Automatic annotation (TrEMBL):
PROSITE patterns per record: ADH_SHORT (PS00061)
The name this protein goes by in its record: 11-beta-hydroxysteroid dehydrogenase 1
Main localization of the protein described in the UniProt heading: endoplasmic reticulum
Source organism (scientific name): Hymenochirus boettgeri (Congo dwarf clawed frog)
Topological relation to the membrane, as annotated: Single-pass type II membrane protein
Length: 293
């Protein structure tokens, strides 16, 4: 009980410092007229981010695999007041397509202010099945396409002193059961973009990188995958999307949402990893895992 009290007290101090130290104020007009790419924008958090930047008056290019869904997102973005909105459909396991998205933005907009990387490939939520080829394929979509788009967009972002926003996960900071392939790719994102950020500082490159560490969110795909197994309730995708946009516009190093679910485990991890493992496992009901065929 003593260690729990210490952890709770320490967490409270850190929370108080976090909220006290936040001096930047976000205003919607920060993104008015800005040129923005949103990937994985046909549903979930990506769709909501597209709606937020559209409402703020940005020029928006959305991308995902499904044309029909993208057309619906484009129509809604127009209604919300986007300065302009376009889409390009394709699969991010193809690095040529990943570059094409950036080149399309350059052709349409003549530049770029914010690159929001949010797409993910499909994976299972269950015990690791030993399939290393699946991890390799997932790394292509979840990591290498992010790096490819970043490299392609960097000349434009340097000119605009722009922002790179990377949607990651608590599973990319804290070991998580039942998500070995997914967690592998999210840890890789942290390594790539956090290292790239510090190189930008060394080289005096004024392009911000915001890594977004999100918890369980009520997207259709997440709820369908983990329903009945993860016992905590999901957080709302619309609010999550807005916090990501704010963090990118304010050039924050990292965004945590929900804060208590995403940041506090990191504080515990560094001080009491065995206790964090205990808390993590308490949050899973593996009796409800589907049987793998």
């Amino acid at each position: 009980m003593a260690i729990i009290k210490v952890i709770v007290a320490f967490t409270g101090i850190c929370l108080a410092f976090y909220f006290y130290s936040g001096t930047d104020v976000f205003e919607d007009d920060m993104l008015k007229g800005k040129k923005v790419i949103v990937t994985g924008a046909s549903s979930g958090i990506g769709e909501q981010m597209a709606y937020h930047v559209a409402r703020m008056g940005s020029h928006v290019l959305v991308t995902a695999r499904t044309v029909d869904k993208l057309e619906k997102v484009v129509a809604q973005c127009k209604q919300l007041g986007a300065a302009s909105v376009h889409y390009i459909a394709g699969n991010m396991n193809n690095m040529t397509f990943a570059k094409q998205v950036v080149h399309e933005a350059e052709k349409i907009f003549g530049g770029l202010d914010m690159l929001i990387l949010n797409h993910i490939g499909w994976t299972y939520f269950n015990y690791f099945d030993g399939n290393v080829d699946h991890i390799r394929d997932l790394l292509e979509i979840n990591v290498l396409s992010y790096a490819t788009m970043t490299v392609a967009a960097l000349p434009m972002l340097k000119k605009s002193n722009g922002n790179i926003v990377v949607v990651s996960s608590i599973a990319g900071k804290v070991p998580s059961p039942l998500s070995v392939p997914y967690s592998t790719t999210k840890f890789a994102l942290d390594g790539f973009f956090s290292s790239l950020r510090i190189e930008f500082v060394q080289q005096k490159i004024d392009v911000s990188i915001t890594l977004c560490v999100i918890s369980y969110i009520d997207t259709d795909s997440a709820v369908k995958s983990v329903s009945g197994v993860i016992t905590q309730p999901p957080a709302p995708k619309k609010e999550c999307a807005l916090e990501i946009i704010k963090g990118g516009a304010l050039r924050k190093r990292e965004v945590y949402y929900l804060y208590r679910a995403a940041k506090i485990p990191l504080l515990i991890r560094d001080w009491a990893p065995e206790f964090l493992e205990y808390l993590t496992l308490k949050n899973y009901d593996v009796k409800n895992l589907p049987k793998k065929e």
